[in-house]
Amino acid sequence: MIDQLWLIPLGFVAGVLGSMIGLGGGIIVVPVLTFFGFPPTLATSNSLFAAFSNAVASTISYHRQKRIEYSLGLKLGLLTIPGTVLGAYISSDVTPELFKILFGFVLIASAVYIFLRKKLESKEKNIPKQMMVFAIGASFFAGIISAFFGIGGGIVFVPLMVVGMGMAMKKAAPTSQLILLFASFSGVAVHTALGHSDFLQAGLLASGSFAGGLVGARLSVDIRERYLQILVSVVIIAAAVKMFWDSFSGNFV
Predict the structure, then answer these.
(1) Contact at 8 Å (CB) between 174 and 62?
(2) Torsion angle, CA of 149/25/157/197, rounded to 10 degrees?
(3) What is the model's pTM?
(4) 11, 90, 112, 169 - which has most CB atoms within 10 Å?
(5) What is the pLDDT of residues 108-157, one digit of tens each?
């Protein structure tokens, strides 16, 4: 157990960043676990435990700050569940090479979102009915991404709520955490049923991620984001480049 205690600070750092940007901490946890030789299904499953713990802590904090749109969050959260079941089953057959290539693209998309986050903000407006229909399909897709990659579904939901629905960023990221609560829990349940989880590793990650979620939600109130955005984007892009490199060079550890 002692040689795995590094998973606690990993979960904490991922929890802080995941809570603040609304994407969940999987974009940090999964690349690190993969670099240390964890199989894709194990990395994904362990990351979802951390994502669930982070979502619980973040939701509690954001609830106290009254920044969650519960009506929308509950609807979108429930709609992710069928997708998470499919995503978890698909992940059972993915090869390390294909997983790294696909996750590399997810990381690049995440970095672009983080860097352009402020520019996405718009004035709040009424949600058109057509957008809600689109949101149903997007929720199912986000559920697949969540369980397949272990990252939650914030990379889909935050831009959807901000750009498509006109929600202010200060509410979109907190509402995304509520949605991730459903997506990560259902993903954890299916991965566990499939025997993908290591409960000791997952527990260590989850404990750090819970504390990180509390801290991240608090820091999100008044932190200056620009330097953080640049730093996180650079780190994520570097991780994506290494994943592509490992995949094409045949280096999976």
Answers:
(1) yes
(2) 40
(3) 0.79
(4) 11
(5) 877 777 666 666 555 555 555 666 677 788 888 888 888 888 887 777 77
Q: Which tokens go with 42?
A: 């194990």
**CA-CA distance, 12 to 88, in Å (whole number)?**
24
Closest CA to 117 of 24, 28, 21, 17: 21
Q: Where are the alpha helices (DSSP H) in the chain?
A: 7-21, 26-35, 40-64, 70-91, 96-115, 129-149, 154-159, 169-193, 199-219, 226-249
Q: Which two tokens stand for residue 184?
A: 């990560």
Q: Which DSSP category does 3 fall into?
A: G
How many angstroms separate the CA atoms of 159 and 172, rounded?
8
Pick the closest to residue 8 from 244, 236, 210, 219 (CA basis): 210
Residue 120: alpha-carbon gap to chain centroid:
19
